[in-house]
Specification:
Layout: H1 17-32, H2 36-46, H3 50-56, H4 61-72, E1 80-84, H5 90-97, E2 102-107, H6 110-118, E3 124-127, E4 142-147, H7 160-167, E5 168-179, H8 180-185, H9 190-199, E6 203-208, E7 212-215, E8 219-231, H10 241-252, E9 257-259, H11 268-277, H12 285-301, E10 306-310, H13 318-327, E11 334-340, H14 343-357, E12 361-363, E13 366-367, H15 370-376, E14 384-387, H16 398-410, E15 417-423, H17 428-435, H18 439-445, H19 447-455, E16 465-468, E17 471-473, E18 483-491, E19 495-499, E20 504-508, E21 513-521, H20 526-533, E22 536-543, E23 549-556
Parallel strand pairs: 1-2, 1-4, 2-3, 4-5, 9-21, 10-11, 10-14, 11-12, 11-13, 14-15
Antiparallel strand pairs: 5-8, 6-8, 7-8, 15-23, 16-18, 17-18, 18-21, 19-20, 22-23
Length: 563
């Protein structure tokens, strides 16, 4: 294992009482921060004394990390270096002293960046949340990235590494510091992310220092290391052929609305963006569904011992069923099988439930298409299949919706139950509040174009798109006549993009839209009609107190009636 000597640390000196008291209060706020607002307030308050506080505690991690980066990053005057989590510019100053002149700093705190600007070492400074896509920069924009003090309790999440690796070109270098105890405990998941990147050949380890004192004058026993990784060519995800085909079909036409099925928006980043979107005041769906699960979880679970969830996201919803199973008190162990085409999604769900319940629930994740996985699950006993959210209403056509229901029906036994979420029609103002809900809503919709840029090496200008969600009545189909919200991004100026992995030019006129999905809204009484057309029978229906959302228990039409 290559190492780098870091034995030259400062000697331990006592802190002045006033400095020690201030730092103790700041550290407490930092380690207990729970929201972005907590961090923004902390750094705004700390920016005035940040530099002198770090000098007082003898912190030298920025110097050691800068020296490590310089060891593996030549062309110091021209190499583009990202200082991710730049703070007041300590790492940038250390890099500038070593001859680096093309430095870009990113930090969540504008007051911190104002201090960094005063140092005069950065070409550009941007306020951005490293836990979200940094759309200001395209893929592989930098030759190297440095992160100092970023991975700590309450600070940047582990998946910050995903965005940093996206921004550093293959062959470039990522250098970061981390406390040894935080690394070994892996409470924030950074070590697990590093191991995952190793296994996927996203990067390879170049160097790491021996442990050195992290806060010599404050916590002399706290140690840290600097890690250096080379980003590999294999960091790029393999081309998803079905996504490529869908994008090619949509973008080779000349219609004013280019449609791409909503299923292609999803990856681990989309799940995080969606979670943020659901926190918008006008977004009602998650709250309504959770209300139903909180009130009727035990009734929905019934006596089943096997729960299969199609399209798992977070475990937030299914935990109501797990809790209901534990409350039965009969000693049985629930088997929960999350199913998704994304290995990352099912593993994240398993990890979350394993942490919460240890061995009290048997989580058996399955990666694959719903049809093939459902066909392979044992059929000896009845099972509960759940399809939470309004994903059924996101299927592009009513033909496709009916085909999906028939597919599930054909893979059910007469003892199985299928509980599926359906959003119910409501006032236009409520729908606009949910689907034109501001920046977080736009950021989620925009991820379809972001994926085109990333997976297919496109170069659409993300800043040119605005959100637009018209509400349209659909023609009658199988006795059902729903309305649908069309989730669109409209380019405000003409765009001529190139999708390198498809060797394809794509043109959009100003005013053209990319439709990233639809959300279909049903009348309450239409659910039974739709189920019957698919060979299913609506057995029970649960709604929230406002009647905005429904969970619907469907069984095969040849199943025995409920007693």
């Amino acid at each position: 294992m290559p190492t780098h000597d870091s034995s030259s640390s400062s000697s331990t000196q006592p802190l002045e009482a006033a400095t020690e008291g201030r730092l103790q209060r700041i550290w407490q706020r930092a380690y207990t921060a729970r929201t972005q607002e907590d961090l923004l307030r902390l750094y705004a308050d700390w920016s005035a004394t940040y530099d002198q506080d770090h000098e007082a505690i003898g912190f030298f991690g920025h110097e050691l990390a800068a020296a490590m980066l310089a060891r593996y990053t030549p062309f110091r005057r021209s190499a583009a270096v990202l200082d991710a989590g730049a703070g007041t510019g300590a790492a940038g100053t250390a890099l500038h002293a070593l001859g680096y002149r093309n430095l870009v700093g990113v930090d969540i705190s504008s007051p911190m960046l104002a201090k960094a600007k005063q140092k005069g070492v950065y070409r550009d400074l941007r306020a951005a949340d490293l836990g979200q896509p940094v759309d200001a920069f395209p893929d592989s924009s930098f030759d190297a990235a440095i992160l100092v003090g970023v991975f700590s309790f309450g600070q940047a999440p582990a998946y910050t590494l995903d965005e940093v690796v996206r921004l550093v070109r293959p062959g470039g270098v990522v250098v970061f510091t981390m406390r040894v105890d935080f690394f070994e405990q892996d409470a924030m998941g950074v070590r697990s992310r590093m191991d995952e990147f190793d296994a996927r050949h996203v990067w390879k380890l170049l160097d790491r220092t021996e442990p050195a004192p992290y806060l010599p004058h404050k916590e002399p026993d706290a140690m840290f290391r600097v890690f250096a990784y080379r980003v590999l060519e294999t960091k790029e995800p393999p081309v998803d052929e079905s996504f490529a085909a869908a994008a090619r079909e949509a973008l080779t036409g000349d219609e004013p609305v280019r449609r791409i099925d909503h299923a292609f928006i999803w990856d681990s980043t989309a799940s995080r963006l969606y979670d943020r979107y659901t926190e918008c005041e006008g977004y009602y769906l998650t709250d309504c569904e959770l209300e139903i699960l909180e009130s009727h979880g035990r009734e929905i679970l019934g006596e089943d011992r096997l729960v299969v969830e199609l399209g798992c996201g977070s475990a937030r919803k299914v935990r109501h069923l797990v809790d209901a199973a534990l409350q039965r008190g009969d000693g049985s162990r629930l088997v929960y099988t999350p199913v998704d085409i994304s290995a990352g999604a099912v593993q994240a769900t398993k990890d979350e439930l394993d942490r919460a319940y240890q061995d009290r629930v048997d989580v058996q994740p399955r990666v694959g298409r719903f049809d093939s996985v459902l066909s392979s699950i044992p059929v000896d006993d009845g099972k509960l299949i759940v399809f939470f959210g309004s994903s059924l209403g996101n299927i592009e056509s009513m033909d496709g919706t009916l085909d999906f229901l028939r597919m599930v029906r054909d893979r059910m036994t007469v003892g199985d139950r299928f509980v599926v979420g359906l959003d119910l029609d409501k006032d236009d103002d409520v729908l606009r509040g949910a689907y034109e809900a501001g920046p977080r809503n736009r950021d989620f919709f925009l991820h379809m174009v972001r994926r085109i840029n990333h997976v297919l090496a496109g170069n659409f200008d993300l800043d040119a798109f605005r959100q637009h969600s018209p509400i349209l009545r659909e023609p009658e189909f199988a006795g059902v006549k729903p309305r649908s919200v069309h989730l669109r991004l409209v380019t405000e100026r003409p765009q001529d993009a190139y999708l390198a992995r498809l060797h394809m030019e794509a043109h959009l006129d100003g005013g053209d839209a990319i439709q990233v999905g639809i959300s279909r809204k049903f009348e309450k009484g239409q659910v039974a009609v739709l189920a019957e057309a698919a060979g299913l029978r609506l057995q029970r229906q649960w709604c929230d107190r406002r009647g905005w959302f429904s969970l619907n228990e469907l069984v095969r039409d040849d199943a025995a009636p409920r007693p």
